[in-house]
């Protein structure tokens, strides 16, 4: 009996140590990296189509890329920009948040599309303009997004 209890404790600790080494950090704990130039190149035709006035075709393309990839974060970021331009601010905040979750490099100073600067500028403009003085769920989303951007992967 005296030997059984210490043996049971040792086996439990050994099993715990074994399984602890099998755990891999999730995407939300690790920084997903991507080459900013590669992301920008993959969306260059979509940006050109937008400039040429092909908004509906570009929206469809971006929605497909946001679902299936590659570079889902880039598609979500661009969808956020389009929503912001249309005045759909809640949708813009949601898309920006999902973009940062999909590709954290978008929150870095040298990230794709210079997204950090654009998102920060848009969110600050929201707080000073259309959402001034509002104490809404959307505004807490803006504050959370700003905190995430100030962290980034840097």
Which runs of at least 5 residues are low in confidence (pLDDT < 50)? Answer: 24-30
Round the mean pLDDT to the nearest integer and report it.
81
Main sheet summary: none
Please estimate the helix content.
55-70%
Class inferred from helices and paired strands: mainly alpha
**CATH superfamily (homologous) name:** Tetratricopeptide repeat domain
SSE pattern: HHHHHHHH
What count of domains describes the coordinates? 1
CATH class: Mainly Alpha
Tell me the overall shape: elongated
| Residues in β-strands, percent | under 5%
Outline the secondary-structure elements.
Blueprint: H1 4-22, H2 36-42, H3 44-51, H4 55-68, H5 72-86, H6 89-102, H7 115-128, H8 137-151
Helix pairs in contact: 3-4, 4-5, 5-6, 6-8, 7-8
Quick structural gist:
This protein has about 150 residues and is mostly helical.
Structure description:
It is a single chain. The protein is mostly helical. The protein has one domain: Serine Threonine Protein Phosphatase 5, Tetratricopeptide repeat. It is 69% helix and 0% strand. It contains eight helices and no strands. Helix 5 runs antiparallel to helix 6 (89-102). The longest helix is centred in the N-terminal third of the chain and has 19 residues, at 4-22. The protein is elongated, with a radius of gyration of 22 Å. It starts with a helix and ends with a helix. The model is unreliable at 24-30 (pLDDT under 50).
Quickly list its features.
single chain, 154 residues, mainly alpha, 8 helices
């Amino acid at each position: 009996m005296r030997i059984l209890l210490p043996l049971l404790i040792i086996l439990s600790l050994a099993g715990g140590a074994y399984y602890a080494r099998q755990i891999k950090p999730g995407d939300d704990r690790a920084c997903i990296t991507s080459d900013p130039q590669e992301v920008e190149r993959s969306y260059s035709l979509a940006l050109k189509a937008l400039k040429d006035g092909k908004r509906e075709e570009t929206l469809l393309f971006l929605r497909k890329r946001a679902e299936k990839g590659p570079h889902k974060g880039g598609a979500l970021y661009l969808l956020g920009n389009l929503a912001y331009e249309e005045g759909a601010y809640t949708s813009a905040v949601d898309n920006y948040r999902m973009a940062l979750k999909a590709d954290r490099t978008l929150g870095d100073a040298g990230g794709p599309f210079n997204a950090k600067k654009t998102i920060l500028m848009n969110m600050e403009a929201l707080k000073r303009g259309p959402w001034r003085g509002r104490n809404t769920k959307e505004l807490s989303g803006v504050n959370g997004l700003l905190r995430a951007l100030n962290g980034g992967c840097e």
